[in-house]
Write a structure and sequence with these properties.
The complex is a heterotrimer of chains A (364), B (517) and C (324). Chain A has 15 helices and no strands. Chain B is α/β, with parallel strands linked by helices. Chain B contains 17 helices and 20 strands. In chain B, helix 13 crosses helix 14 and helix 14 packs parallel to helix 15. The radius of gyration of chain B is 25 Å and the shape is globular. Chain C has a two-stranded antiparallel ribbon with strand order 1-2. Chain C is 69% helix and 1% strand. The chains are: A mainly alpha (364), B alpha/beta (517), C mainly alpha (324). Chains A and C meet through helix 6, helix 12 and helix 14 of A and helix 3, helix 4, helix 11, helix 13 and helix 14 of C.
Chain lengths: 364, 517, 324
Amino acid sequence: MTALPRWLDIGVLPVVNLALALLAAAVVVALVGEDPLEVFAVLLQGAFAPGSLGYTLYYATNFIFTGLAAALAFQARLFNIGAEGQATLGGLGVALACLALEPVLPGWLVVLVAIAGAALFGAAWAVVPGWLQAYRGSHIVITTIMFNFLASGLMVWLLSGPMMRPGQGSPQTRLFDEAVRLPAIHDLLRGLGFEAARSPLNLSFLFALIACAAVWVLIWRTKFGYALRAIGHSEEAARYAGIPVRRAVVVAMALSGALAGCMALNEVLGVQHKLVLNFSAGYGFTGIAVALMGRNHPLGILAAGLLFGALFQGGAELNFEFETVTHELALVIQGLVILFSGALAYMFTPWLARLLLLRSAAHG
Amino acid sequence: MAGNGGSGGADGPAVRLRGVTRRFGAVLANDDVDLDILPGTIHGIVGENGAGKSTLASIIYGLYTADSGTIEIDGRPAAIRSPADAIALGVGMVHQHFMLVPTFTVLENVMLGMEGGFLLGSGEAGIRAELESLGRRHGLEVDPDALVDDLPVGLRQRVEILKALFRGARILILDEPTGVLTPDETDQLFAVLNAIRDAGGTVVLITHKLREVMAVCDTVSVMRHGRLAGQRGAADTTTGELAELMVGRKVGQPARPSESAVGTPVLRAAGLIWTDAAGTMRLQGVDLELRAGEILGVAGVSGNGQSELLDILSAMSPVQQGHIEIAGRRIDAAHPATPAEMRALGLAHVPEDRQQRGLVLPFEVRENAVLGRPESAGPGPWTSGSAMQAHTEPLIARFDIRPPEPGRPAAGFSGGNQQKIVLAREFDGAPHVLLLGQPTRGVDIGTIETIHAQVLALKERGTAILLVSTELDEILALADRIVAMNAGRVTGTIAAEGATPRQLGLMMTGAVDGAAV
Amino acid sequence: MAETWIDILAVLDGTARLATPLILCAMAGLVSERSGIVDIGLEGKLLMGAFAAAAAAALTGSPWAGLAASLAASVLLALVHGFACITHRGEQIVSGVAVNILALGMTVVVANALFRHGGHTPPLGADERFPPLSLPLAETLRDVPLLGPLYAELVSGHNLLVYAAFLSVALVWWLVWRTRFGLRLRAAGELPEAVDSAGVSVSALRYRGILIAGLLCGLAGAYLSVAHGAGFVREMSAGKGFLALAALIFGRWKPLPVLFACLLFGLLDTVAPRLQGMDLPLFGPAPVALVSVLPYAMTVVLLAGFFGRAVPPRALGRPFVKEH
């Protein structure tokens, strides 16, 4: 494979791939009979208009967590397609902590336990596929897919049975106590004397930022991160170097699952305040797009997470403005981004390399 | 020489190459090669690793296309763009890595691509008969319904040859066919090649083993650095002359290392038996003793248990039976060790496969310099760029690694410099024991001398070195004592002083035992 | 007695209906994965096919137009997968994820644009769907004890695509194990270098494998929306593509075992709702939701090698790099 200079690889290629995805989406829009430019304008406006920013950041919080989850595992070349199920289990961890402990513990303590619960339950749901891959040789992609379905089956069972809200038929738990919720950012800002529009944005956005920094430190500044990257590039070399590969794989999956589980902090502890079916809503899969687009780097994931947040929030706006184009356009774009910046990542590498060669030839 | 009825009767060469050039990135693999291969002969192409032999063969077989130059087959210009073109022209190839589908039967492998009809059933009987007749004619009998997965290496090679013959190959190229064979199997192979030649076929034998070329070839072409360095009739030359052509200078008896004080035993292996996942017993009871300040050479055809021995001694593979003693610790099946523990016991390991194992190619040099040495990567659980840099700079200086850039990914270095990165790391800190696997494989001549000097210097400082190499000359040049391995056993131990290649060769075949030292 | 027999037949009948899309998708996966291309995009192709079939049937009034559209749409997605994985040697898992998400978005966006119906197509009338076929003599023989109902209830009375699904198993077996194409296809999935060295194009083989997978998923899609169902509903594939993938692994990439896995999974799906409200010994009320995910759990256990081993084609997921 032709090697590109770093700046091209990191700076230009993702932009080219994003542009392609948007172009392809524009073709879809045009075929549907709308003006792509108009649609994109509405999208942008919907994402960044005053009052919308909070929503954009709220979506971005989910995507940063699931994006980091995918990226961390991928550093060790593990395809964790199970963020969806891990997030679901994270929600279960939050709900169990809140429902069981809110009568007996002070609110802030319950919140701490709930955070730990999200991470632990998410981690547990990822550790099993990790362990099966490391010690039993089953393929992690297949196992994590299966675990997504197992998680959703488990939820259907729990929410329509043991954990169902008493006295009602819909599959969800009762609301958590007021004291065990993550504060909304607009409330926090109001406390500081700033006025901000109401939005679902809550404290977990800050947690997501902290997670970005922590993952960066872990991958590039610790021996464990070094080990993960070594495994990702060459498992043989990692074994030779004395890295306990199997254990590292299990730990990597645990951390990845914990990050995915933390998505539930935003949705369950921050916004819904109850456990409902399917709150993960495909955000686990969006994480794969975010990680690919962000080149598995926390900074890139932050940027891609914001981009997808804008896409989803702007997409919601489409429903009001157009009869034919709906917010599922965001899904189309997401699929195209995965296609272009993941599966077709290197389609343009030889082309860019040639362009570069021409340029340097012209200069030399 | 037998008549060449099968080669179209042309008097000209079966294969004629003119000006064949092929580049891989910055490397000129074939540089303006002119070559004539006469029909009805066995033509050897020899050269060191990386001399461009395999590339040349792949070009004739259409796996690569040449950047420039022409090919003629049987006197007619040939445009060979794919193996299909080559097969149509009567060219067949037996690859170094067998192209056999392990889950298929022999018959299915042979018929792949030549099935004789859309329905497998329609051609099968005819193919089966043809296969049997080919087998009888050339002494290549194989059970057509055997699963390839169940066949030993020697038989798999037969299937490869049958495949080529079945496709109507009149010109058969074999790429390093003996690397995986026992001496017995090698003899059988040569008998087959002679039979093919006698039936009028043309054989191109690619190898780096001069003795083989002398044993079976009619003509020998020598390649060096992608160029044709010379061509000789096998009867008119000597291994010495061919070696000079290969290396490009006079190859004398290498200087014996100065005798150094050999110390106490630091590594002992007793009764090592190891069976691989497929159930083959790769080591059948190996005993070794390695003393401080000595180099013990392990000679053998590759695939006779040397790699497995290195794996077990470095704890890459677990001890199954027998035990190892190192630095006062006993390691056996009940008391396993990890590669990290072995390192802590003072063992360093230059693995045979540096690109897969010895290096993480996308990692920078400074990251590679701390591979297996986490304590040099930074304090506590942290890694630190400056700590790694400080650790790496002296290594780069000591081994003259070029370019001297600690921040450059290892993938961006030549093979020789990649090997220097591994050696620099493993030689650092005067290990008690060094496992040295194929230290100069694929390394250019100039670097080989540097590496040999460093190995001897390390020995002077008291390190016990186990040298595994398929290059007998290297072992003779460096080792104090030599053990030969054959079929997972140590077949003899002799002092290197006064040992001859012939004597070693016999030991490697398991024919004679060396006198114990 | 007769009543139990009718009950059993009804369960088996339901099994056949629910297993049909699984069988078609699993056979699609089998052909693709035997050629060395991982296909976790079965779900997406199924969904896209289902939508295209319902849309075309609604617009033209013909289920055959629906079938044609379904095949075309599914093949188109298969080609996207092939372009990424074969031509550009992209990561096959990633490409499969992209295909699934693309289908999820595209079906709803286009459905909204065409029908303004909340991402659905209008419900299809009887003449816009594939009708059940009554096999010869089904009614006449109904009164024959045991076998009569078996023939009339279970064998007869399905729509065309159910029969196509069972036929596809035999066809796939014949194609992959009894023809030249199949031999080469399997070789491409085990050791593509051997195929290349034999002078046969690995890419062409894998493209053909992927095309066949597209066609089979297209059949499955049409079954969902214009045969079994009556119109497209968003996300109507509901994980069946992944279930087929599980069946493919469960059946170890061999047609007959894969068929049995599909039937087993179909049976579980048929039985699960019937357990609703029943009390199981030791277990209390039947956990229906858990029964329906049993296939996934069984696949995980199988993959972990706790009973037997599922060995995939050796070159599965490995792009073939040919240097020139």
